[in-house]
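Q: Hi! Curious about what Cytochrome c peroxidase looks like structurally. Here's the sequence.
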Amino acid sequence: MKKFILLYLGFITLFSCAKNEEEYVLIPKKVELKIPSNFPGLLYDLSQNLLTEEGIALGKKLFYEGRLASDGVISCGFCHEQASAFTHHGHTVSHGVDGKVGFRNAQPIQNLAFFSEFTWDGAAIHLDLQPIIPITSDVEMNENIPSVLSKLNSYQEYEVLFTNAFGDREATSERMLKALSQFMVTMISGDSKYDKVIRNEENATFTELEINGLEIFNNKCAACHSGALFTDQSYRNNGLPTNPKFPEEEGRKRVSGLKDDFYKFRVPSLRNVAKSFPYMHDGRFGNLEAVLDFYSDGMTQNGGVVDTLLVKSNGNLGIDLSSQEKTALLAFLNTLTDNTFLNDKRFAEF
Ligand code: HEC
Ligand code: HEC
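A: Let's find out. The predicted structure is below.
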């Protein structure tokens, strides 16, 4: 008898599934993520958020949606522009609703599926949670989640997009955040000249100067800017003078509360670095020449603990770089530009 009931329940489930699927306009199409062969393993858990064409499409729509902000204008894409590797072109620190100014430089959005913590100080520990910060920050999108959801729930275009991606029309915060993550997870940049050389593709080769730059980079920079992502994802103090314009800035200490974490920031990836200017957490340097001059001559004790890798044998701070070495480093850094990514229609607003 028991067996019979189980069998019967099984049939009902089977039957109701089939029926439900028939009712859908569309069954979401699963998407396989293409990971470059020279990349590390994914850190984003896709088993908790199945990638589908429809989920990604919804995420992209949301990424460029001004209605996520209180003024109906400031979308994620407003501060994260594709041509600048999804940073905010022309702004040292971000400008949000009503022209309000934050205190950090917008970070590139690329390869985030391979990261474990987000923002300059690691305030967000999951990609799905990160967008809550800009949406609710008064200097960014100045909104609140219930209000965003009620806006989304009132537009017919979203009714269709949510139904296609998640089976019914309801816009919930979980669905909104998961769709945004799906879109961001697909934003992989791994097709620069550097990658092609490393993977032996298309007969790509470095010039003498680029090879020289790579050697200098490996000797003097790669301890922190390491691996295929050009970051070890740790928080470090690289001896930048504190910025009197933003006295509230404490770096990683804002998150950990630890005194020694003062002015530590997550080592940034250097992919597309030629396009993601201005540089550093507050965008203080307008070009890469200025960054290299800082590394050779601009470091100071800044009230925190400057990384020991940056302390020379004579006790001074900095990295010895001749002007020839700087020229070679610049040539190498330029090989990290991935024009396929910067022009990829899948990520473009229009
Ligand atoms: C007003 C400008 C602005 C808007 C709008 C904005 N961002 Fe950002 N974004 C920033 C800044 C500035 C940072 C660095 C924040 C920090 O370190 O405190 C950042 C960081 C991030 C990061 C972390 C990247 C990393 O490498 O850790 C992600 C992901 C991100 N934003 C996604 C989004 C999404 C999704 C939206 C829309 C919901 C959005 N942003 C809207 C300016 C903005
Ligand atoms: C001790 C670790 C360490 C070493 C060594 C190091 N960096 Fe950095 N680098 C950092 C940290 C941390 C930041 C972010 C600091 C900030 O924003 O306040 C950074 C920022 C940068 C930036 C700005 C990137 C952006 O998106 O804003 C560039 C470019 C850069 N480094 C290049 C180099 C080069 C080239 C070398 C070698 C000459 C080098 N770094 C050596 C830790 C290091």
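A: A fun detail: The chain has 13 helices and two strands.
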